[in-house]
Amino acid sequence: MAQEYDIVTPLDLDYYGVFADIDEADRAWWQRAREFTTGVEERMIGHWQREEYPTDLVQQAGQLGLLTDGVDVSSLGMKPMSGMAAGLLNMETSRADGSLGTALAVQGGLALRTLMLFGSEAQKAQYAEGIATASVLGSFALTEPDHGSDSVSLETTATLHGDEQSGHYEIHGAKKWIGNGASGGVTFTWARVSGGEFDGQVRCFLVPQETPGYRAEVIEGKASLRAIHQALIRYEGVTVPADAVLPGSRSFKDAATVLFATRLGVAWSAVGHAAACVESALNYAKQRKQFSKPIGAHQLVQERLSWMVSELTSMQLHVKHVTELDAAGRLSGPQASMAKYHNTRKARQIAQTARDLLGGNGILLQNKVARHMADIEAIHTYEGTESVQSLIIGRDLTGYSAFA
């Protein structure tokens, strides 16, 4: 009979004690995330296989207050979390499952953050609590079929008819890879304005997904993040009132402000994925026997484990330090890019090594590594590809822009 291996037990590998001195309030959020994700992995494997999106788990996270991603929600009567707590939560959720981690990041990091930063008081009163608790699903529509890394060149248009107080906008265009974009709820749509004071500028529009002309379909056949739905959206003359504009959004720089914050979340997510792979490898190395002893007793395996833990430790140091810089108001855009660039690259390498260490068992979904390995490919790309991050860092280092 084939041996079953205990792969899922968390080991909380923190070789340098990077998180040993975090604030107790932050640790409490981390523990809440641990409790939320405990026991969900088997269910998520099934959803991952079938390309199903378990929105009930997102709503459960919302009821626990886990969707706010460091956004100031005190005005909603909710307990706010620090940036460090948001990072730890992102890490822990992604350690359990990448699709679930991404769902929480979309709902809180992108949708809720956009509303709270740029929305009117009336918009917040109508939607903020619902998005924060996931009774209303929210999406952030920036990326287009032909504009990913160069999203500043987006082609979706919002044409003003009448005046900016009592008129309306007609939206035409398309968006792609939009989490929650076909799941019901509202879509924060970034479009280039035609007409009025902001002619030619990029602004954000709050579009309920039931609005006529809003056509969204789930993208199928993904090999990564299979348990969250991303959408291809077509805006075919979507008409929204003038007050659908988020008044604080006035240029593409505002969209970039949201992405700046979520870039740190991706770096933290990479730590969670990498930790899951290292835990799987270490648990397996202690249980799997070859040549009459555990494979963890072999020199080559110990070398690989040592390398993986050293790289995981480097990733932990990166995210903790940049999050402290952010809290102090001293984090630059290129520094955030460095954290994302470094951590998703290292997560890929760790996953590859862990998969190899598990041998044939490494490709089984029940042993975690293959699923995390696939999901890392998505976080390596979204919120700015490796190439784009390197150009941001390179421009900061040299003073020369190499984007064109």
Task: Outline the biggest β-sheet.
Answer: 7 strands, mixed
The secondary-structure element order is HHHHHHEEEEEEEHEEHHHH
User: What is the tally of beta strands?
Assistant: 9
Spatial separation of the terminal alpha carbons: 59 Å
Describe the secondary-structure layout.
Layout: H1 24-37, H2 41-50, H3 55-63, H4 83-96, H5 98-118, H6 121-133, E1 138-141, E2 157-161, E3 168-179, E4 186-194, E5 202-208, E6 214-218, E7 230-241, H7 252-287, E8 289-290, E9 293-294, H8 299-327, H9 333-357, H10 369-381, H11 386-398
Structural summary, described in words:
This protein has three domains: 24-137, Butyryl-Coa Dehydrogenase, subunit A, domain 1 (Orthogonal Bundle), CATH 1.10.540; 139-250, Beta Barrel (Butyryl-CoA Dehydrogenase, subunit A, domain 2), CATH 2.40.110.10; 253-398, Butyryl-CoA Dehydrogenase, subunit A, domain 3 (Up-down Bundle). Strands 1, 2, 3, 4, 5, 6 and 7 form a seven-stranded mixed β-sheet that branches. Strands 8-9 form a two-stranded antiparallel ribbon. It is of the alpha+beta class and 404 residues long. The termini are far apart. The chain is 49% helix and 14% strand. The protein is built from eleven helices and nine strands. The chain has helices at 24-37, 41-50, 55-63, 83-96, 98-118, 121-133, 252-287, 299-327, 333-357, 369-381, 386-398, and strands at 138-141, 157-161, 168-179, 186-194, 202-208, 214-218, 230-241, 289-290, 293-294. The mean pLDDT is 94.
